[in-house]
């Protein structure tokens, strides 16, 4: 017997309709590529999104067809999120930090029909326009006054003209909630990038779950500033969450340096922000060196890479900003776990609480997880035993876009490629990417722990730990370190810093000081490049203390 409830499919357009009708006066503020600050309401946005949906239809964009963007976080990008998916087409957010060859490969693979881009990316568009095979039109996300002239890309279209040419009368189509809504490619550090194709249903369920108090904890009282780009896993879902809860949204555009972010936090009363650890380093450095504070920001969501405990301490103890450590993947839309404490942790000391907060957290309802050994057998949740993390849930991919063969799942679970522990309270802690694990004499050493210790040293700006080949132990940990400017630090001082902080045999064998550590298109350390450059360091310097 069926229940007697309305049969409403879960569609992304309903988020916008809700924000327009029930939070119409709420603001969206954007620092624009054009240099000024733009401000309007969800009600204004709704009008423009429907005009844009008419413009897409007039250009012949059909349901299921891919519409690409190369854009910063801003209101026009937000309009595309809703106009494209709401119409039943698929929003494909391209990552402008990728090499032009990769952008061409991904756009061709996705068979994008039309590409919308911010003015900043004209040089990239000029580099790829004649090489992409399916894109029929390029639209500059600006007004007529700022339209560039390009000899390399004829017939550039103007975003504001497209909108002006159409009325806001548009009925959002109703279709199957399993229809594709957006497409995001993994950065492809190994092999070609792979497309995660989200559906309306998966996106809506992810939005409900990610907004919950024990997850990203967003409400109508919040002013949300996503630093994480809208071209990286839908800015972790915040453009959808903001409409669902009716929060004010603040977009930083291309200005992601510490000063620009801090100015915007203060000017707009931002209460919650989100980004990868590397972005927050710049912000903290700016705030520290100028003796500033945060008047309204009280929470920051940090994920994408492990958040060093030293950074957590700085935010929480010095600036009264609570860190929400989160773990996710492109393949998970992306939120999988968030580290919010349970009642049993309230009586712990600050140091004990910090140790738990350093974990990546517990599963958000909708994501089930387990760890398995090399034989596939499930491992205990004792907080010590590490194995490959497997997940399943309604917003986890079942296959990659145009995936061939049997697909990535193993008995219905998605193998994340992350190595982790899970403790008895359900808190998961990543020790490594499986491809970055250090195997010393047959035992695993987790590089993230070693990096966190180095990052706690006051003279260290950034640290990465890699597996370096070793004549006796196969692999040993090697630390690659960028010193803070003006600070002195020797190899021996840093190695000594590990005494008492970690099992002795985990201590890195050596330290290589460098000027910079290479970051990939999503802000993660490119350990493959570091291994290429320094992988033989210990073979040449075989003075290992463990040899
Ligand atoms: P990419 O496109 O680079 O794969 P993703 O955002 O999909 O970008 O990367 C997912 C991976 O990032 C995870 O599998 C994990 O290795 C890493 N990651 C994400 N969040 C965290 C975190 N809080 N701590 C440690 N690693 C993380």
UniProtKB/TrEMBL annotation:
Molecular function via GO: ligase activity
Pfam (any one): AMP-binding_C
Domain AMP-dependent synthetase/ligase residue range list: 18-401
Keywords, sorted A to Z: Fatty acid metabolism, Ligase, Lipid metabolism
Lineage: superkingdom: Bacteria
InterPro entries associated with the record: AMP-bd_C, AMP-bd_C_sf, AMP-binding_CS, AMP-dep_synth/lig_dom, ANL_N_sf
PROSITE patterns given in the database record: AMP_BINDING
Domain AMP-binding enzyme C-terminal: start-end pairs: 450-524
Ranges in coiled-coil conformation: none
Family: Belongs to the ATP-dependent AMP-binding enzyme family.
PANTHER family in UniProt: ACYL-ACTIVATING ENZYME (PTHR43859), BUTANOATE--COA LIGASE AAE1-RELATED (PTHR43859:SF4)
Protein's recorded name: 3-(Methylthio)propionyl-CoA ligase
Organism: Variovorax ureilyticus
Species classification: Bacteria, Pseudomonadati, Pseudomonadota, Betaproteobacteria, Burkholderiales
């Amino acid at each position: 017997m069926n229940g007697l409830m309305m049969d409403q499919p879960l569609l992304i357009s309903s988020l916008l309709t809700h924000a327009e009708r029930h939070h119409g006066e709420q603001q969206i503020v954007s620092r624009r590529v054009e240099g000024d600050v733009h401000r309007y309401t969800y009600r204004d946005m709704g009008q423009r999104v429907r005009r844009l949906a008419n413009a897409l239809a007039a250009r012949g964009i059909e349901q299921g067809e891919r519409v690409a963007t190369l854009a910063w976080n801003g209101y026009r990008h937000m309009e595309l999120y809703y106009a494209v998916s709401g119409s039943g087409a698929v929003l494909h957010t391209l990552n402008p930090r990728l090499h032009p060859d990769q952008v061409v490969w991904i756009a061709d693979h996705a068979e994008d029909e039309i590409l919308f881009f911010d003015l900043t990316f004209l040089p990239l568009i000029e580099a790829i326009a004649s090489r992409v095979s399916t894109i029929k039109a390029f639209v500059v996300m600006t007004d007529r006054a700022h339209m560039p002239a390009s000899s390399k890309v004829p017939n550039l279209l103007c975003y504001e003209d497209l909108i002006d040419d159409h009325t806001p009368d548009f009925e959002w189509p109703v279709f199957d909630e399993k229809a594709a809504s957006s497409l995001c490619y993994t950065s492809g550090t190994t092999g070609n990038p792979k497309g995660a194709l989200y559906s309306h249903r998966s996106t809506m369920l992810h939005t409900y779950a990610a907004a919950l108090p024990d997850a990203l904890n967003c409400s109508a009282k919040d002013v949300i500033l996503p630093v994480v780009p809208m071209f990286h896993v839908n800015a972790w879902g915040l453009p959808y969450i903001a409409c669902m809860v009716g929060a004010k949204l603040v977009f930083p555009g291309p200005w992601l340096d510490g000063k620009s972010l801090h100015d915007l936090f203060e000017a707009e009363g931002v209460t919650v922000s989100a980004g990868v650890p590397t972005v927050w380093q710049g912000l903290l450095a700016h705030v520290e060196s100028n003796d500033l504070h945060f008047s309204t920001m009280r929470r920051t969501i940090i994920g994408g890479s492990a958040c060093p405990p030293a950074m957590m301490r700085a935010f929480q103890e010095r600036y009264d900003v609570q860190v929400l450590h989160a773990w996710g993947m492109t393949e998970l839309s992306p939120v999988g776990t968030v580290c919010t404490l349970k009642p049993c942790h309230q009586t712990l000391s600050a140091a004990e609480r910090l140790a738990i907060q350093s974990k990546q957290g517990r599963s958000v309802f909708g994501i089930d997880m387990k760890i398995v050994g090399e034989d596939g057998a499930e491992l205990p949740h004792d907080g010590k035993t590490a194995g490959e993390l497997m997940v399943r849930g309604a917003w986890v991919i079942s296959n990659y876009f145009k995936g061939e063969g049997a697909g990535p799942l193993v008995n219905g679970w998605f193998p994340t490629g992350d190595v982790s522990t899970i403790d008895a309270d359900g808190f998961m802690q990543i020790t490594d990417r499986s491809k970055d694990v250090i195997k010393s004499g047959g035992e695993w050493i987790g590089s993230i722990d070693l990096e966190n210790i180095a990052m706690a040293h006051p003279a260290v700006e950034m640290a990465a730990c890699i597996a370096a080949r070793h004549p006796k132990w196969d692999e040993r940990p090697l630390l690659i370190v960028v010193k803070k400017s003006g600070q002195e630090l020797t190899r021996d001082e840093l190695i000594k810093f590990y005494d008492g902080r970690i099992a002795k045999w985990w201590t890195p064998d050596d330290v290589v000081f460098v000027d910079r550590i290479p970051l990939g298109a999503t802000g993660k350390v490119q350990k493959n490049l570091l291994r290429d450059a320094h992988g033989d360091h210990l073979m040449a310097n075989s003075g290992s203390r463990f040899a």
